[in-house]
Amino acid sequence: MLQIVSKKYMIMALDQGIARKIIYPDRGIIYDRHGKVILDNTTIYDLMVMPSKLKGIDTAVLCEILNIDTAQFKKRITDIIFKNTKSRPSVFEPLLSDELKARLDEEMYRFVPAFYLQERSVRHYPDDVAANVMGYTAEVDTNFLKKHKDEGYASGDYAGMTGIERTYEKVLMGERGIEYWKRDNKNRLTEKLEKGKYDTAAIAGNSLYTSIDVDLQKLGEKLMQNKLGSIVAVDPRTGGILAMVSAPTYKPNFLTGSERRKHFSQLFLNPALPLLNRTVSATYSPGSTFKTLQALVALHEKMITTEFKVTCTGAFYGCGGGKPMKCLDKGTFDLKNAITISDNTYFATVMQRVINNPKYPTVDSSLRAWDNYMYAFGLGHTLGVDVPSEKKGNIPTPTYFNKVYGDGHWNYCTFRSVSIGQGEVSVTPLQVANEMAYIANNGWYYIPHVVDSIEGGDKYGLLDKYKKKIRPTDIPDSIFEVVHDGMQGVVDRGTGVGAKIPGIVICGKTGTVENYYRGVKQPNHAFFCGFAPRDNPKIAIMCVVENSGKFGGTYAAPIVGLMIEKYLKDSITDPKRLALVEHFANLNLIPKRIDIAIRSQDSASHAKDSAYLFAKGYIKNIRDTTGIDDGDDDETIDKLEKSPTTTTAPAKKDDKHILKERLQAILPDEKNKNKKDTVKR
Question: What is the DSSP letter of 194?
């Protein structure tokens, strides 16, 4: 009856003589703050199959072209039927290379109507940067389709899996179109059915306009070559993220095109974890960068004045017995100079006064008050950035100490190392950059974000929270100015002189962070954070170089200085400064244990056992740190298990240890989080 009433339904039901062709839309384009394209689209082809029409097809020739055997062909078809039935078109070979596409074009008449070529728009990165910020797309699998069953996806679609490709998937994805074509007696497409009367046009996704400065991002990635760590730069006036560098990174075009799966497996198994976005997913003790916040709390709580002085004779002895907490500089310091030279004894004394504040009846209540300040500063919770997989870090609470030590069996001396940014406190690089924006603005910030606006308007309200100014405390400007004075001294004459730039007043703070792996002390992390210029700040920034073994002023401060110079002056022209860029770009600071793991992976025999063990034994953990979504992990396991380079032989004990290191290399060592009494600057 429907076929009589509506010719449209009759045509859609026809199977002979008419081909239904899906038209995939272009995803939205992503621009930087100056309107430069960061991410756009190019065209590639998929080989599609309709299993119900395979009878009579010369599959031997097709297998030869695709370089697969008949067993692999049958396995693919079986999987396709299981996932998508035999009557629906499915991707048989995705993202064809130009060479493979050309060969198929010559022989395609042999394979119709069961096979046809489907044009697809895929992602392209003109500058090949910002991989962990932009994220990547991948073909949806059954797990994804189940999870997003009411969102219009179908087998063969691609979706954003990480980065802002994931966060703004609704905006970027667009809408598929359909074309109906006539076939001739050789099953070749000839012309559109009734001149396209029943076609529906594909609708391209909406574009995103970001705060990212591509040239600044490129410089940051160059400076962080052959290093582990990150750089985060924020415009404190808006919260817009200017640069977000996670090192090591990878070229994002690596995960597009015909060899995407091969490249993904290589990145996934890399011991340095290039798929991990360290800017939001790695946590560290903040070291002496934390002292600026201690100063704000103590001044606001009136536990000290700006003239309050402490004499350091070589260590902090305020906790009586036990090992004293050493400092590097002996002398008597007021607040400004204590920030400038980063004196441990001063800030241990300051926090002791805050925790022992008579205003609060118990140490529980005083620590809770201190916690509230830290939460207000953006620590101990996720900020809500639009880049997925953000971790919250840790601010120690009375509940935690009561659990560890028992009610009433702990006091300030139990966690004194927190006063200098060690022990139980941990932060993400993004939180530190936001902390600098908060201090630069004298007590307010916008939630950091990558996307500033959306083409056609923000119909889903995705950007609403990024437009609200957050002023979480009533700390007066005068207190911030004192902290600014000390931070300016850090760069002018203190531990951060490496960040100094002629003509620009920079406020900064160094940090040298002890860290442990399996109970063994590792080389120190180098931190530097700050903002510039002091008056009317335009950039708040932080850098961490993992396991560099030096003070924060040695590596992190000069890198930040170069980034600030590039952003505020638009270019670096002085030959000496350009030489410094090349010096840091060529500096290899990859930790020894990671370098050993990478080198060992080059062995073919080791790669066999490692790949299998990693996929089977640690795949769930890596998902937590990379932000890999939905079915990509299953896809990788499948590929690794079916690959001729894998084996089911048990891995050697040494292999297992190396693989565990890949996951734990930058994760906090719970047994050693409470290491105290370290000298940090």
Answer: G
